[in-house]
User: Fold this.
Amino acid sequence: MSTPTLTRTVRSESPEETHRLGVRLGGLLQPGDFVGLIGDLGAGKTHLVRGVAEGAQVARSEVASPTFAIVYPYRGRIPLYHADLYRIADYDELYATGFLDLIGGDGAVLVEWLDRVPEAAPREYLRLTLSPVGDEARELRAEAFGTRPAALLTAWLAGNG
Ligand SMILES: Nc1ncnc2c1ncn2[C@@H]1O[C@H](COP(=O)(O)OP(=O)(O)O)[C@@H](O)[C@H]1O
Ligand SMILES: [Mg+2]
Assistant:
């Protein structure tokens, strides 16, 4: 694993704050961006992604729709692909789903449980690791690999620690 281009840590004191962080990130995402989310069940990965979807102008009803797919495609300001690798055993299984074809394509990609299949990450991406700090607080460690992810991270957290 290479060294991150840029690392930042930010603390969220509530679900609402995590949501707001997501909204701001969603406003900055561009096609080709890849965001990997890591953290145990209940860490707040999905919560953050819902904020991202709102920030990318995805209709709330689209995000709420329940499905058992590995990838949830959302139509917003740009296409957003929300994947959850929790049930994926390995790279071969992920490859078979066709998910990998979405990387570097027409939209931005957000992947929960990236640590299940770390090889799924492209060379340049933003990795977010969420850890509970008590009931309501979360530590969010952001590691950018590459120039574009570093610029994205800087813009995202500008004025926020
Ligand atoms: N600071 C916080 N940020 C995000 N979620 C929080 C926070 N504090 C408490 N929570 C709660 O933790 C849970 C996170 O759930 P979820 O986003 O589905 O986690 P994951 O997708 O990582 O399994 C929610 O019930 C949310 O209300
Ligand atoms: Mg989740």
The chain has five helices and seven strands.
